[in-house]
């Protein structure tokens, strides 16, 4: 299990350098969850876990991440999510992007230092710099769905951490900061507007 955990850490660390697309990132994360995690020895009973000391320090092997199972179905949360940031929507799903191509999500204009929150409970599968888009956070929200937050500034979470809806995950930085929100099902982009509540207005407020 320890060797597999180290292999998972090494594979995750190589994602930023090897991935050529967001789909490739998601596919590799799904592969790690399917192939590595099921082979890890099951955890001991709760009483043993309470008594056993936890490893500390940077050399401690991380726990391989399994596919996240939220308490509520993400598919059933359509129309109920809050926007991840307070700010104007300056790009909508399917519209042309200034840098070319079409938006595969929503783009928000955020203020420097604005806090980015998780729209839904999930597990942080990826939180690091990724060349084409800058800093990227991927939340595994179960059922084959992932929430992507592209262009964040400072990370407030770590990979493998679970977060609740509304919990801070990042802060924006720099003048003219922009955040892209994408939702993907099995790697394919779907319109985030279908998941946002009517109270999350066009300006991103809730």
Structure description:
Strands 1, 2, 4, 5, 6, 8, 10 and 11 form an 8-stranded antiparallel beta sheet that branches. Strands 3-9-7 form a 3-stranded antiparallel beta sheet, with no helix packed on it. It is globular and about 45 Å long. The protein has helices spanning 2-18, 22-35, 46-51; strands at residues 88-91, 106-109, 115-117, 122-130, 134-142, 145-152, 154-155, 162-163, 168-171, 178-185, 188-190. The chain has 206 residues and is α+β, with helices and mostly antiparallel strands. Helices cover 18% and strands 27% of the residues. The model is unreliable at 36-64 and 201-206 (pLDDT under 50). It is built from 3 helices and 11 strands. Helix 1 packs antiparallel against helix 2. It starts with a helix and ends in a 16-residue tail after the last strand. A hairpin with a 2-residue loop joins strand 5 (134-142) and strand 6 (145-152).
* Residue share in β-strands: 25-35%
- Going by helix content, strand content and strand pairing, the class is alpha+beta
Secondary structure tally, helices: 3
Helix content: 10-25%
What is the radius of gyration? 18 Å
Q: Give, in order, the helices and strands.
A: HHHEEEEEEEEEEE
Largest beta sheet, briefly?
A: 8 strands, antiparallel
Give the CA-based shape.
Answer: globular
Q: What is the quaternary state of this protein?
A: single chain
Instruction: Give the low-pLDDT segments.
Output: 36-64, 201-206
What is the number of strand segments? 11
Overall mean pLDDT stands at 78
């Amino acid at each position: 299990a320890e060797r597999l955990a180290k292999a998972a850490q090494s594979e995750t660390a190589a994602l930023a350098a090897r991935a050529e697309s967001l789909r490739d990132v998601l596919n590799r994360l799904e592969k790690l969850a399917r192939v590595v995690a099921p082979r890890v020895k099951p955890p001991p009973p709760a009483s043993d876990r309470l008594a056993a000391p936890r490893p500390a320090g940077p050399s401690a092997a991380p726990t391989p991440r399994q596919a996240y199972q939220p308490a509520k179905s993400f598919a059933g949360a359509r129309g109920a999510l809050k926007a991840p940031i307070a700010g104007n929507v300056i790009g909508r799903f399917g519209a042309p992007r200034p840098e070319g191509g079409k938006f595969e999500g929503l783009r928000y204009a955020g203020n420097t230092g604005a806090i980015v929150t998780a729209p839904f409970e999930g597990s942080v599968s990826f939180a690091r710099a990724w060349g084409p888009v800058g800093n990227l956070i991927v939340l595994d929200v179960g059922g084959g769905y992932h929430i992507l937050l592209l262009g964040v500034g400072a990370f407030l979470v770590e990979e493998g951490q679970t977060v609740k809806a509304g919990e801070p995950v990042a802060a924006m930085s720099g003048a003219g900061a922009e955040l892209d929100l994408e939702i993907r099902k099995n790697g394919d982009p779907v319109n985030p507007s279908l998941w946002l509540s009517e109270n999350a207005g066009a300006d991103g407020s809730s």
